[in-house]
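User: Okay, second chain of the day. Same drill as before: sequence in, structure tokens out.
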Amino acid sequence: MSASPTEVVHDRAARRPTGVRRRAGRVRRPHAPCVDWPVSVALAQAVPTLPVGPDLHYEPKFDRHRLVVWRTAESVRLQTRSGRDVTPVWMDLALAEIQLPPGTVLDGEGVIFVDGRIDFGAVQSRAASTPARARLLAEEHPAHYAVFDLLQHPQDGDVRGRSYVRRRALFEELLHGLASTATVFVLIADQFRDCVRAACSD
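Assistant: Same drill. Structure tokens below.
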């Protein structure tokens, strides 16, 4: 669960974006600030009681591997929360995320299903594997990406300083016309939030 999770991350120095292709219609503002690689991500913090309030938003915590997706001008890079580039062992995710508009940076989690359930052991095996073994593991159990925040918008640049509600709206705009592979958990997260609110009101 999170309340505007990435707003605690300090803004990086703005710089002119380079190497991002223009898209039909709306284009990036000339001086839109960019997120610098590697980006610091907000981390969960344990609390004694569940915080409630009209401005709080909740997300499920999966047995997963934290990953930041960077859609560059030519490809996709995947970053761990510590800042390491782990694209070679999550290449199936990189190939799926190529559908995102260049200039997009997402914060989320890599998850793997085994027998219809999320399997943390499978995630750990993938994360610790070599690129060659990762390809074999991906053939048996492909990974999925659970998105829970937008850090950089392809036209507006760094959006971490905006409210969570606005970032969420911008992210949902990006989903139109995309395959469901990269966003399989978007609706589940919304349903989880509603369940938590209902439980807190009982």
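The first helix runs from residue 91 to 96.

User: Thanks, on to the next one.
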